[in-house]
Hints:
The complex is a heterodimer of chains A (about 100) and B (about 475). Chain A is mainly α and about 100 residues long. Chain A has helices at about 5-25, 30-45, 45-55, 65-95. Helices cover about 70% and strands about 0% of the residues of chain A. In chain A, helix 2 (about 30-45) packs antiparallel against helix 4 (about 65-95) and helix 3 runs antiparallel to helix 4 (about 65-95). Chain A is flat and about 60 Å long. Chain B has about 475 residues and is of the alpha/beta class. Chain B is built from 18 helices and 8 strands. Chain B starts with a helix and ends with a helix. Classes of the chains: A mainly alpha (about 100), B alpha/beta (about 475). At the A-B interface, helix 1, helix 2, helix 3 and helix 4 of A face helix 1, helix 2, helix 3, helix 4 and helix 8 of B.
Amino acid sequence: MEIDPFIFRLSIFILSIFIGYYVVWSVTPSLHTPLMSVTNAISSVIIVGAIIASLAGETGSIFGKANIFGYLAIILAAVNIFGGFLVTQRMLAMYKKKKKDK
Amino acid sequence: MSANILAIFYLISGVLFILALRGLSSPETSRQGNLLGIIGMAIAIGVTIISIGNFSSGFIYLIIFLIIGGSIGTFIAFKIPMTAMPELVAGFHSLVGLAAVFVAISAFLNPIVFNLGSPGNIRIATLIEMSLGAAIGAITFTGSIIAFLKLRGIMSGSPITFIGQHFLNLVLGLGLIALIYYLCQTQIDTLFWTVIGISFLVGVLLIIPIGGADMPVVISMLNSYSGWAAAGIGFTLENSALIITGALVGSSGAILSYIMCKGMNRSFFNVILGGWGATNEASKSINKEQRPVKNGNADDAAFLMKNASSVIIVPGYGMAVAQAQHALREMVDALKKNGVKVTYAIHPVAGRMPGHMNVLLAEANVPYDEVFELEEINNDFANCDVAYVIGANDVTNPVAKTDPQSPIYGMPILDVEKSKSVLFVKRSLSPGYAGIDNDLFYRDNTLMLFADAKKMTEDIIKNL
């Protein structure tokens, strides 16, 4: 009997939830805002689907209905990726330790 | 590129995203973590483009749209003031939600390119994953828009409730499940559009009854939803990077919601099912009698703090509204020159999103090792001379410990009342979000400073 590939994906999913659980509990509370902005940025990896939708639709026209939704999703995800990572960077740069020589 | 190699690259991205979150366990490692996240994203995008290997005109459009979106994102990231961070995050969540909806739509319209079957004959399992991803994405989209409008102040922060609201939500929720079931049976595309339409409506209905100060829970919850939507799409596209990321983000948001609910001693459902105001009319009216308060000015406050040996600052949402964080830092600098020991105490639900106060203080160059969480610092109030409460209210109310009738009874609070004297900066005596009077105002050791948080702090600096 063969195992459905879906089961493998489900295993990845369930194990990742557990990884997420332990990793996020170890995040220091003072960095909870950057945590939200960075999770935001990484969830935009959904752009992968948008790229496939917009590029692979070789059905004669590159502006078929499916492609257009792909392009729209690319714009939205790109705003998020750049905005999310950069604003996180900007926030993290502000967290400084006490200077001893003051 | 073979499918196996591609899958390995997606796995690498997924691992890099895990490391990005891991980096946030301390500020020192966090910047490196963010960099790993960026690399992970670059790998995912890069290998996807290479694997399709289509560098015709479609590719040029892709680059153009990437640049358009990227420039908008970059512009926002550099222009946004730190005080607007909660609404920015809400706005970003809405984009993830809508992107998930769009990807699901294009997969539904053109399943062949995603290897999912042909239009009208999509695999059942795929159809379920796809419609769940689209539905959660749509709820995230409109829900985040409402959260954004509330945080931005375009829409009133007070809960909007009407009779039969929960019943309507229940009917719509069950309707969604039924529609997805029929969609799988019949593959009729109208059903798919209806699922998305109803989900948009559910997103609005879910967030409008939740009040302004419950926004930390809402933002965390929407963060979680955007993750589950991404995971749903990840299953559809059989993409492990998306599945891993979706699971990470989903559990991250869920944990933050839990922490926020615990910070308010409320259950998740209690928050979701509507504002505090509605259930607590009775306890509101009890506390209406006028009681005397001690009223002070900047001069008194400066005198008290200058002669103190230790001061604890308790910031809240009011500090963010007044943009008082820079003035506050200057005041603390002046106090430190006088040899006063100053620390900051932050309640888990201070502000409008998790970690809101920490970011604002970091922006004002407050070193993060002077900023403490509730459990770390709560015992220090008993030994401190002055507590300076700036823009916080409910989170300092001793009623939470003493009065079982109070709606906030049991909520962990900062034990501000134990310090020798309390300076409470507030614009008026009006009750806080929970609609209850703060007992602290009437204590003998409390001096009320009625003014805008920023202006009062600046006046104190002049008097130091």
